[in-house]
Design goal:
Helix 6 packs parallel to helix 7, helix 7 crosses helix 9 and helix 8 runs antiparallel to helix 9. With 410 residues, the chain is an alpha/beta fold. The protein is globular, with a radius of gyration of 21 Å. The protein folds into 2 domains: 99 residues, Urease, subunit C, domain 1; 298 residues, Metal-dependent hydrolases (TIM Barrel, Alpha-Beta Barrel), CATH 3.20.20.140. The strands form 5 sheets. Strands 3-2-7-17-18-19 form a 6-stranded mixed β-sheet, with no helix packed on it. Strands 5-4-1-6 form a 4-stranded mixed β-sheet, with no helix packed on it. Helix content is 31%, strand content 21%. It comes from Kaistia hirudinis. GO terms for molecular function: hydrolase activity, acting on carbon-nitrogen (but not peptide) bonds. It holds the Pfam family Amidohydro_1. InterPro entries: Amidohydro-rel (IPR006680), Metal-dep_hydrolase_composite (IPR011059), Metal_Hydrolase (IPR032466), Metallo-dep_Hydrolase (IPR051781), OTAase-like (IPR057744). This is Imidazolonepropionase-like amidohydrolase.
Length: 410
C-alpha cells in the first residue's frame, strides 16, 4: 500500500467534545505513523485534502451476530453452513459500508470468518469472536420448542449461535473448547431472552458455580466472560460471579449499576434490537410467544441508559439485530441520542468499544501506531449524530487497515 497523507480537514478525537482543526495524519502499511499539528512532509505519499470534512476513527459495534441471516433462529440453524457463510459475507460487507470497521461478534461467528476477513476473501470489519454462546438446557440459545424431544440440536451448524452445556465440568470444557477454536472472550446466557422459545425473560440461567467456572477458565486464558442479561437480579448475580461484559441490561437498577461500575464491568445496551423486533419481528418469523416478550424490555431500555450513566457504568455501542432486521442497524445512534450526550455516544462506539475488544490504542483512536481504521464524514458528528446513521450515506470514505473500502474523495 502506498502511504496516504490526510490534510486540511477537521480531526475528531473521541476523548474530546469538539473537533480539532489543522492536523495532518500520515498512514503507511496499514497503520497511522504520524499525527501532527505541523505540516507532514511525505513526498511519496498520496495527498488527500479533506476540504473541511471530518476525519474520525472507524466505528466499533460490540454486540452483533454476523451469522444471523434470518429472525427465525431455528431456520437459521437448519440452513447449510455454506449458505450461512456466504450470507454472512454479504452482511459483513454491508456492516463495513456503514462505517463499522470492527465488530465484536457476541456468539455465532467462527474462526473461518475471521480468516476470510484477514485474507481478503470478504470485505468486512475486523471480527472479534466468542465462538458459540454457552447456554443451559432450556436457556436462551436452546431453540427447541417444548414438544421437541431431540437431544442433538445441530450445534456444529454455523447458523446455530450457541451450544447447550450443563454442569460445572462441562462448562469448563466448553469454555476451553471455544477458546481453543479462536474465541477472544466467552459468551454465556445468564437470563431469559426474547427470541428463545421456552424461557421467560425473568428466568435465571446457569448456577453460580457454573458461571464462576466459566469465568475462571476465561481469566486463565487472559480474557473475560460476556453475559446475556436483562433483569436486575441476573445482572447483579453475573457481576458477583466475575462477569465483565453485561449485554442488554434493560431492567438494571441503580444499586446494581453502581456495583457493576465498581467492579470495572462494561455494559452493552442494544435498544435498536427491540425496536426492530417490534416493527417487523413477526413478519420475518418471530413467534407470537417471543413477540409478547418484547415490550417488557423495550419500555425499560431508555431508562436503563440514564441509570447506567448516573452510576458511572461505561457503555459500549451494540445493536444485536437479527437477520432481516439488520437494516435498522444505525438507528441505534438516534435512540441513544434521546438520552445520552453525543460525545458519550461517540466514545461508546470508539474508545469504550476498543477497551471491550481488548484493543486499546489499536482501534477507536487516531494516534501513531494505531490501525488505520478511518472515516471521512461530511460534517460534524458532534453537532449532528445522525451523520453516523443512514447506512454510511454521510461518509465520503471508509478505510480499514489502511485500505479504502469506500472513497468518494477524488
Amino acid at each position: 500500500m502506498s502511504p496516504i497523507l490526510f490534510t486540511g480537514g477537521r480531526f475528531l478525537d473521541p476523548s474530546q467534545d469538539a473537533l480539532i482543526d489543522g492536523l495532518d495524519v500520515l498512514v503507511e502499511d496499514g497503520r497511522i505513523v504520524e499525527v501532527s499539528e505541523h505540516p507532514i512532509h511525505a513526498a511519496a505519499a498520496e495527498r488527500i485534502d479533506l476540504r473541511g470534512k471530518t476525519l474520525m476513527p472507524g466505528l466499533i459495534d460490540c454486540h452483533l451476530h454476523v451469522v444471523s441471516t434470518t429472525v427465525d433462529g431455528w431456520a437459521n440453524t437448519l440452513a447449510p453452513s455454506s449458505l450461512i457463510a456466504l450470507k454472512a459475507g454479504r452482511i459483513m460487507e454491508t456492516i463495513l459500508q456503514r462505517g463499522f470497521t470492527t465488530v465484536r461478534d457476541c456468539c455465532g461467528a467462527d474462526l473461518g470468518l475471521v480468516m476470510a476477513i484477514e485474507q481478503g476473501v470478504v470485505d468486512g470489519p475486523r471480527l472479534i469472536i466468542s465462538g458459540k454462546g454457552l447456554t443451559q438446557t432450556g436457556g436462551h440459545c436452546d431453540q427447541r420448542v417444548r414438544t421437541d424431544d431431540r437431544t442433538q440440536v445441530m450445534e456444529e451448524r454455523l447458523g446455530n449461535l450457541g451450544r447447550i452445556v450443563d454442569g460445572v465440568d462441562n462448562c469448563r470444557l466448553a469454555a476451553r473448547e471455544e477458546l481453543r477454536k479462536g474465541a477472544k472472550f466467552v459468551k454465556i446466557m445468564a437470563n431469559g431472552g426474547v427470541a428463545s422459545p421456552t424461557d421467560p425473560i425473568h428466568s435465571i440461567q446457569y448456577s453460580r458455580e457454573e458461571i464462576k467456572a466459566i469465568v475462571d477458565e476465561a481469566e486463565n486464558a487472559g480474557t473475560y466472560v460476556s453475559a446475556h442479561v436483562y433483569t436486575d437480579k441476573a445482572i447483579r448475580r453475573a457481576v458477583e460471579c466475575g462477569v465483565h461484559s453485561l449485554e442488554h441490561c434493560n431492567l438494571i437498577q441503580p444499586e446494581t449499576a453502581r456495583l457493576a461500575a465498581k467492579a470495572g464491568a462494561i455494559a452493552v445496551p442494544t435498544l435498536v434490537a427491540y425496536e426492530g423486533l417490534a416493527l417487523e419481528g413477526e413478519r420475518f418469523g418471530l413467534s407470537k410467544e417471543a413477540a409478547a416478550k418484547i415490550e417488557t424490555v423495550r419500555k425499560a431500555g431508555l431508562e436503563s441508559l440514564s441509570i447506567m450513566r448516573d452510576a458511572g457504568l461505561p457503555m459500549a455501542f451494540g445493536s444485536d439485530l437479527l437477520g432481516e432486521l439488520q437494516k435498522y442497524h444505525t438507528m441505534e445512534f438516534e435512540i441513544l441520542a434521546r438520552v445520552l450526550p453525543t460525545a458519550e455516544i461517540i466514545r461508546s462506539a470508539t474508545l469504550i468499544g476498543a477497551k471491550l475488544c481488548k484493543l486499546e490504542g489499536e482501534i477507536g483512536v487516531i494516534a501513531p501506531g494505531a490501525q488505520a481504521d478511518l472515516l471521512v464524514v461530511d460534517g460534524d458528528p458532534y453537532a449532528d449524530i445522525t451523520l453516523l446513521a443512514d447506512d454510511g450515506a454521510h461518509m465520503s470514505a471508509i478505510m480499514r487497515g489502511g485500505r479504502f473500502y469506500k472513497n468518494r474523495l477524488n
